[in-house]
Design goal:
It is an enzyme of class 2 (transferase). It is a single chain. This protein has 225 residues and is of the alpha/beta class. It folds into 2 domains: 4-184, Alpha/beta knot (3-Layer(aba) Sandwich), CATH 3.40.1280; 191-221, no CATH class. The chain has 8 helices and 6 strands, in the order βαβαββαβαβαααα. The mean pLDDT is 84.
């Protein structure tokens, strides 16, 4: 669906990746309108039955019986960081059967709203990624240097679950090409908010909301700004 000169098809795998893990992408409706979203690239790398996308804010058992069944499956994981989350690598070591992983696609505030306001998502085992990888999605601003896009999270998670390092490289290839094309056509590299604040480069007005201001202070190790 892109112009020929910036076509990403040559950077996609010739055949969908063979994986046993099934991904359920819970996508906030606002993501559908973003031109440079990463989920379509992820879906293009995987078999249709291994990457299912559900769009919405609220997911009840009545309206989404299949999702409810998935959430009650003991082999289902939900990728969402927090105090209750287990390191995914620890879970992968103990798991031998095919798993289902739920990933929320949206901004951090949108993902938080979806996670906490849908009781179904509290049923699966909560996991998180422990990684120092910096995001390669340099055409969008991330809160911190280690915040990853949905595609990058899926790539790392699948690599861990499938115990196959080549998966991450294959899934990230179209993202790298996308960013390269955008930079060649006038886009600028977006540093994280953490980087901008640490280096005195943040040029937007400071938020008046004390909670938001406190969150930004935490990005620079509690240094007053």
């Amino acid at each position: 669906s892109r112009p020929q000169k910036v076509c990403l098809c040559p950077f996609l795998p010739i055949h969908p990746l063979k994986v046993s893990t099934c991904l359920y992408i819970i996508q906030h409706p606002a993501e559908e309108s973003r031109v440079l979203r990463t989920v379509p690239l992820l879906a293009a790398c995987l078999p249709p039955d291994k990457c299912k996308i559900l769009v919405g804010r609220r997911f009840s058992e009545d309206r989404y019986p299949e999702l409810a069944t998935v959430c009650r499956n003991p082999n289902t994981l939900i990728l969402y960081p927090g105090a209750e989350a287990t390191n995914l690598e620890e879970v992968a070591v103990m798991s031998s059967s095919p798993s289902v992983m739920i990933i929320i696609d949206g901004t951090w505030s949108q993902a938080k709203d979806i996670f906490y306001k849908n009781s179904l998502f509290r049923l699966p085992k909560q996991v998180q990624l422990k990684t120092n990888i910096s995001s390669q999605y340099v055409i969008r601003t991330q809160p911190t240097n280690t915040c990853l896009s949905t595609l990058e999270c899926a790539a790392v998670a699948l690599t861990i679950m499938e115990k196959n390092k080549s998966i991450q490289e294959t899934i990230l290839r179209p993202l790298q090409a996308l960013c390269s094309f955008q930079l060649q056509h006038g886009a600028q590299i977006h540093h994280s908010k953490e980087h901008l604040l640490r280096n005195g480069l943040y040029d937007k007005p400071m938020p008046k909301n004390k909670r938001k201001l406190r969150r930004m202070e935490l990005l620079v190790n509690n240094v007053k700004i």
